[in-house]
Amino acid sequence: MNDIIRDIQDLTFLSWSKVRNSSGTAGSFLKAYEETDEGNLYYKLSNYDPYHGITGHECVNEIIADRLLNLLGLEHLSYQLIHAKVNVDHKELITWLCLSRDFKMKNEDKIALDAFYQIMHQEEETPLNFCIRMGWEKEIYEMLVFDFLTLNRDRHGANIEILRNRNNKEYRMAPLFDHGLSLLFNCDDDNLLSETNVMEDKRVQCFVGSSSAKNNLGLIPLNKQPKLNPITPESKNYLLDGLDGIISKLLQERIWDMIYQRWQYYESLFDKERQHK
């Protein structure tokens, strides 16, 4: 695969800025961008604080999520995981970071869904009903399934974007992006990993749904269940390829357990609903 660059790249020229950390964890996430002849490049670090430096594995989660979206057959922003030397707070650090490219097409502007909803929604219209009226029902249901499979805890209204074509004034939902605060992002202790219940329904942020990723599956009508490629035991090798030495074997195993067990639950949930019809 070419989504992991292991040779250390010198990216000390990048200037990092803080973005809001809505996960409830200490620290912050730093982002940077680079202008090139082929368009802007966007870089993101895992969790950072001035004392501990760069910790966590949110950038690795982006790659695993990217691969999972490939398997499922869903439109999404692609990422690369890069081993790099960076300069943060006047300190040189060696770390893993992720790189993405601009997903806007020519003549498109973007706006966060929560801001767009605030401007355009009808009286007493929920964010979900607003998206359905705008014609984005399919994309929203796909997102809810994916966020359940990965336990994405940060799908706030700015992590869903709307793209507007300046020429024909048409709107579309941006491809899925920003999945760092998912999977087991805040659990890297082996003892905790071994004891973690990968099916636990932890509180999530979801602008179009509730604080329960499991309950959000209930927002999907049976006849609107997304048509996804299945996750099978053979999917494991593809999802985790090349991650040895980047995250621990145990963390890899537990991430796979989470994805596969949640996929099995999702499949059985809709099978049971059909049997009751």
Give unreliable regions as ranges. 20-27
Strand residues, percent? 15-25%
Q: N-to-C terminal Cα separation, in Å?
A: 44 Å
Number of helices: 8
Mean of the pLDDT scores? 92
What topology, given as strand order, has the largest sheet?
A: 1-7-8-4-3-2
CATH architecture classification name of the largest domain:
Orthogonal Bundle
Structural class: alpha+beta
CATH topology of the largest domain: Phosphatidylinositol 3-kinase Catalytic Subunit, Chain A, Domain 5
Portion in helices: 25-40%
At the first level of CATH, what is the class of the largest domain? Mainly Alpha
Structural commentary:
The protein is α+β, with helices and mostly antiparallel strands and about 280 residues long. The chain has two domains: about 5-100, Phosphorylase Kinase, domain 1 (2-Layer Sandwich), CATH 3.30.200; about 110-275, Phosphatidylinositol 3-kinase Catalytic Subunit, Chain A, Domain 5 (Orthogonal Bundle). It is about 30% helix and about 25% strand. It has eight helices and eleven strands. Strands 1-7-8-4-3-2 form a six-stranded mixed β-sheet, covered by helices on one side. Strands 9-10-11 form a three-stranded antiparallel β-sheet. Strand 5 (about 50) and strand 6 form a beta hairpin. Helix 4 packs across helix 8 (about 250-275). The longest helix is centred in the C-terminal third of the chain and has 28 residues, at about 250-275. It is globular. The model is unreliable at about 20-25 (pLDDT under 50).
